[in-house]
């Protein structure tokens, strides 16, 4: 084989592997979506549930914490709820901007145990969008969700955790919501 | 070009310019090999000096010599320099020198690219080292530059780190491409694949690993760069990214990288052991297949570095078993080396001493690796000095010892002189004892829970750490002996025959000693 054609092939491999590093980003998300690993819940609006499984119940608890001194206090009104799979539930969250400036908040959800993530469907969530706050503003958010009837038997309780970020500095184009819409 | 250089050119057959320009413009594989090796030795000493700072600080509990931020810079840059500046260029240097001579080629296939791949390297390390002296200091997030440490919490000099890694990556990719093209296209007539010397085989496989994963590293640093400076959110959860994804991408590069640093070592040891056992290598074909399977397996085990990130059970089990599987081909290699020595007429020249030490101590490092592969145990060992002990056994008494073995083995061929045997043996024995005083107790402090990368530690670790530091200083100073041996050997010494070692085999021993500037201008016939 002449040097040049071998060189061309090897260069293509190099370029391909560089692209592969970036392809790992969506691939990783796809992998987590498909398998529901990593507690990465879907950020798409779920459709309504059509059946309720009354034979069993699941405890769903809520927890929130602020990341990197984000000046927000977010708390669920209930510590936990006891629901049947398929049953639609509304949970209120109170949120407050602790700073005396206008701020934008982004909440990022996570589900534990990780394999329960794909069975938790959110129909309305403040985590779907960035939430602008005026100075010291207090807001009430409503979360509407249900647990899939297919939830494996051995999972009797799960936790929905929100990490709250201050994204006032970031541009609107690189937020969760914008990314989700784009692709 | 000056007239002096012109006339010089006519005197010696066709050497190019003299002095610095000769080295700057050279496209000769032996010149470039020497440049790589000298560069690597320099980096080894600089990285070693940083290790001395680390060990001096850890000599006693409490903070005494350096502040924690500088300590972090030392651990980070020590790692980067040893991996990318010392071990990898040393192997590339050996490949440059030996691969063409071993396969009967006149030079590397792409000599001008060869020149480039070396000469961008000093700039990469100049940039990296310069950042240490700038306001805010150099990289301090560990050589693994985990996000968000390298994105959110790093200083503005991070861009310099990123560019330095880019250049190192480009250099080693070019070096790897050159090795592949040389081996595929320039083998002497009759040199079939299964007649290739094992050093050539292991380097060919290493080169494929390099072109497969160095671009992934380039991708990872690029993402860190854009996350930090251009507002992307690859690793930022607030923007929809994921910091754990950094670790996946990094270790997808990182695990094959550890084999990049050990496969050529396997090649060197497989060359030296038969020479001084005066027997053929046991299981040549199985060595080739074992090397290939280690390389292939290296792509599916990366998450064993991430057992504590909250991976699901299925993932933990998969990566645990896959990792343990690698010990099978590695065990085949160790078995073959020992079987080669079995009933051989062994003599203990310095290259052989380093090779035997390699087999014993690398295997020890392999065993601690096996312990780390056990997921539930890893939760205890993770980020402790046990890990530090493990990878220093495989990299110092593994990779570095093999490089030393190779250097002593081929030094007489390169220079035409035998090295000073007494000094060399002193270097070996001092290194052997001190390296174990340095790294062996780290297993114990690690098991007892001493965390890595911290400039201070709990009082109960004080005695062991003092001992470790003494071992460290002794090992560091012993390496100056190596510098002295190499220098003396380059300057003079007893003349050696073409075939320096009576048990040696291979084309490189058919050319005169010292190896002339041009070898195999007409390809030899391999039977
Ligand atoms: Cu690994």
From TrEMBL, chain A:
Source lineage: Bacteria, Pseudomonadati, Pseudomonadota, Gammaproteobacteria, Alteromonadales
Name of this protein: Cytochrome c oxidase assembly protein CtaG
GO molecular function: copper ion binding
Keywords: Copper, Membrane, Signal-anchor, Transmembrane, Transmembrane helix
Organism from which the protein derives: Pseudoalteromonas holothuriae
Source organism superkingdom: Bacteria
InterPro entries, alphabetized: CtaG/Cox11_dom_sf, Cyt_c_oxidase_assmbl_CtaG
NCBIfam families recorded: PRK05089.1
Membrane topology qualifier: Single-pass type II membrane protein
Family, similarity comment: Belongs to the COX11/CtaG family.
Transmembrane helix is among the record's keywords: yes
Name of a matching Pfam family: CtaG_Cox11
GO CC annotations on file: plasma membrane
Transmembrane portions of the chain: 12-31
Protein's job: Exerts its effect at some terminal stage of cytochrome c oxidase synthesis, probably by being involved in the insertion of the copper B into subunit I.
Subcellular location: Cell inner membrane
Automatic annotation (TrEMBL), chain B:
SUPFAM superfamilies per record: Cytochrome c oxidase subunit I-like
Membrane topology, record value: Multi-pass membrane protein
InterPro entries noted in UniProt: Cyt_c_oxase-like_su1_dom, Cyt_c_oxase-like_su1_sf, Cyt_C_Oxase_1, Cyt_c_Oxase_su1_BS, Cyt_c_oxase_su1_dom, Cyt_c_oxidase_su1_bac
Summary of the function given for this chain in its UniProt record: Cytochrome c oxidase is the component of the respiratory chain that catalyzes the reduction of oxygen to water. Subunits 1-3 form the functional core of the enzyme complex. CO I is the catalytic subunit of the enzyme. Electrons originating in cytochrome c are transferred via the copper A center of subunit 2 and heme A of subunit 1 to the bimetallic center formed by heme A3 and copper B.
Domain Cytochrome oxidase subunit I profile: 23-527
Catalysis performed (reactions): 4 Fe(II)-[cytochrome c] + O2 + 8 H(+)(in) = 4 Fe(III)-[cytochrome c] + 2 H2O + 4 H(+)(out)
The protein's name in its UniProt record: Cytochrome c oxidase subunit 1
MF (Gene Ontology): cytochrome-c oxidase activity; heme binding; metal ion binding; oxidoreductase activity
Key words of the record: Cell membrane, Copper, Electron transport, Heme, Iron, Membrane, Metal-binding, Oxidoreductase, Respiratory chain, Translocase, Transmembrane, Transmembrane helix, Transport
PANTHER family: CYTOCHROME C OXIDASE SUBUNIT 1 (PTHR10422:SF18)
Pfam family, one: COX1
An annotated GO BP: electron transport coupled proton transport
TM helices/strands, residue ranges: 35-56, 76-97, 118-141, 161-186, 198-225, 245-269, 281-305, 317-338, 350-374, 386-411, 423-444, 464-487
Family (UniProt): Belongs to the heme-copper respiratory oxidase family.
GO CC terms in record: plasma membrane; respiratory chain complex IV
EC number: 7.1.1.9
Subcellular compartments: Cell membrane; Membrane
Pathway connected to this protein: Energy metabolism; oxidative phosphorylation
């Amino acid at each position: 084989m002449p040097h040049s054609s071998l060189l061309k092939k090897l260069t293509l491999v190099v370029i391909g592997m560089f692209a592969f590093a970036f392809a790992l980003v969506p691939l990783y998300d796809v992998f987590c979506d498909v398998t529901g690993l990593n507690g990465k819940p879907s950020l798409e609006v779920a459709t309504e549930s059509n059946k309720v499984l009354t034979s069993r119940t699941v405890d769903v608890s809520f927890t929130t914490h602020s990341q990197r001194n984000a000046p927000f206090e977010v708390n669920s009104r209930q510590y936990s709820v006891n629901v049947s799979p398929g049953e639609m539930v509304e949970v209120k969250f109170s949120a407050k901007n602790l700073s005396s400036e206008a701020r934008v908040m982004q909440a990022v959800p996570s589900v534990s145990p990780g394999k329960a993530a794909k069975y938790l469907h959110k129909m309305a969530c403040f985590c779907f969008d960035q939430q602008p706050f005026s100075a010291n503003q207090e807001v009430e958010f409503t979360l509407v969700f249900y647990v899939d009837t297919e939830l494996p038997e051995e999972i009797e309780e799960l936790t929905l955790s929100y990490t709250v970020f201050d994204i006032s500095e970031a541009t609107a184009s690189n937020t969760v919501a914008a990314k989700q819409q784009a692709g | 070009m000056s007239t002096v250089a012109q006339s010089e050119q006519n005197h010696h057959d066709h050497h190019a310019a003299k002095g610095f320009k000769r080295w700057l413009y050279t496209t000769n594989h032996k010149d470039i090999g020497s440049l790589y090796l000298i560069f690597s030795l320099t980096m080894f000493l600089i990285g070693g000096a940083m290790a001395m700072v680390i060990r001096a600080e850890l000599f006693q509990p409490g903070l005494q010599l350096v502040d924690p931020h500088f300590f972090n810079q030392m651990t980070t840059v020590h790692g980067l320099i040893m991996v990318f500046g010392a071990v990898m260029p040393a192997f590339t240097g050996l490949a440059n020198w030996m691969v063409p001579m071993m396969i009967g080629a006149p030079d590397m296939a792409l000599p001008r690219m060869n020149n480039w791949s070396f000469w961008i390297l000093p700039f990469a390390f100049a940039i990296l080292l310069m950042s240490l002296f700038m306001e805010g200091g150099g990289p301090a997030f560990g050589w693994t530059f985990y996000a968000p440490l390298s994105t959110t919490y790093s200083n503005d000099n991070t861009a310099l780190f990123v560019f330095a890694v880019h250049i190192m990556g480009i250099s080693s990719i070019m070096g790897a491409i050159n090795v592949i093209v040389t081996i595929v296209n320039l083998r002497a007539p009759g040199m079939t694949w299964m007649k290739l010397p094992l050093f050539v085989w292991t380097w060919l496989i290493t080169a494929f690993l390099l072109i497969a994963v160095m671009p992934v590293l380039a991708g990872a640093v690029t993402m860190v760069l854009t996350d930090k400076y251009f507002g992307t959110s690859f690793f930022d959860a607030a923007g929809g990214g994921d910091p754990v994804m950094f670790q996946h991408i990094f270790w997808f590069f990182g695990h094959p990288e550890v084999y990049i640093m050990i496969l050529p070592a396997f090649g060197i040891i497989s060359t030296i052991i038969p020479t001084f056992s005066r027997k053929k290598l046991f299981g040549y074909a199985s060595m080739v297949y074992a090397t290939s399977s280690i390389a292939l397996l290296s792509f599916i085990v990366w998450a064993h570095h991430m057992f504590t990130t909250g991976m699901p059970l299925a993932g933990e089990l998969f990566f645990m078993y896959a990792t343990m599987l690698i010990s099978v081909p590695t065990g085949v290699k160790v078995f073959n080396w020992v079987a080669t020595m079995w009933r051989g007429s062994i003599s203990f020249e310095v290259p052989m001493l380093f090779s035997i030490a390699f087999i014993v101590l690398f295997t020890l490092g392999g065993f601690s690796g096996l312990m780390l592969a056990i997921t539930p145990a890893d939760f205890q060992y993770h980020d402790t000095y046990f890990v530090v002990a493990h990878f220093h056994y495989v990299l110092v008494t593994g990779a570095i010892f093999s490089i030393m073995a190779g250097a002593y083995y081929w030094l007489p061929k390169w220079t035409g002189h035998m090295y000073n045997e007494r000094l060399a043996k002193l270097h070996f024995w001092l290194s052997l004892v001190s390296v174990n005083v340095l790294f062996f107790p780290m297993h114990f402090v690690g098991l007892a829970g001493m965390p890595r990368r911290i400039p201070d530690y709990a009082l109960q670790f004080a005695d062991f750490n003092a001992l470790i530091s003494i071992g460290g200083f002794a090992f560091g100073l012993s390496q100056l002996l190596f510098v002295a041996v190499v220098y003396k050997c380059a300057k003079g010494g007893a003349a050696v025959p073409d075939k320096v070692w009576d048990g040696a085999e291979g084309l490189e021993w058919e050319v005169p000693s010292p190896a002339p500037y041009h070898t195999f201008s007409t390809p030899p016939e391999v039977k």
